[in-house]
Amino acid sequence: QVSLVVCFILMFGNSMLLTSYYAASLVVIWGILELSPKVLKGSRREVYLWVIEGCAWLFGTVTLKYLTSLVLGIADDAHIGNILKSKFIGYKDFDTLMYTCAAEFDFMEKETPVRYTKTLLLPVVLVVFGVIIKRCTFKTEMSMQICFCVVDVFGYLFFFQLVYHALQLLAYSVLAILIMRLKLFLTPHLCVMASLVCSKQLFGWLFCKIQPKTLVFAILALMAIEGSANLQTQWNIMGEFSNLPQEELLEWIKVSTRQDAVFAGAMPTMASVKLSTLRPIVNHPHYEDAGLRARTKVVYSMYSRKPAKEVKRELIKLGVNYYILEESLCVSRKK
After folding, report:
1. pTM, full prediction
2. Where are the domains of the chain?
């Protein structure tokens, strides 16, 4: 909670943080920790109690997030919930279609887990994860039978760290499966979890039979087989990005238009116009703003079936002087 407040201050009072799922989740977790021992009385932590608490956390988080957004009138992050809905119930609107038509925001492609497996990253992590589950089960049973003592403090701290990283791994896995782009969080965390194969606390029983250095060297050697092939593939990619029509367009804008001429068009193109020509633009790829999303919908209406006069009238209201119409968006057969 302290880190959330610090982040809110350092981000100049970003209101999205106050109505985020994370903030709502923290409040709900705090409530569960306070009320659970009183409401769900029991001498042992049975599985059904964990299920009840998990359902309460999920329902409470979603409900509290919706209520705080409604009360504070903040809709900047509304598209995030809509994207998640589109994954589960097929919900569609302009914003979700803008996202999901890009491969980066689609479900994780089948090749990703295959690549994880070929480099042995996924098998190693599954072994580590299985050992963590077994260790957690043992610790839980021990905590039910004996009192917590000072001597075991460090053991329990390590145990809590394992639980945190295991839950973090599950969260990142779900996000990466739903939105392929978010595997940028999953892949580094898989590497972090794989490094636990060197942990004496987890694999001390194995190190009694095999030298730790031998085990680690063998794993790295097997990983290097596919890893070196992947590196060679990347090193063989030669060349540079080139888009001559766009370069000519940007040069024409710099030479033939006023410095205060306002442009509108597809978001990626607008980013290039702003960066290369310093001309004002009415929409850009930063989509975490309700007003910007509304302007973008007006801009993209050029590709709709609305009458041209109506589209022009709405664009003039935004102060647009030039509109960059890309034929590729009209004739594309992609989803």
Report:
1. 0.74
2. 1-74, 77-102, 110-142+152-236, 244-331
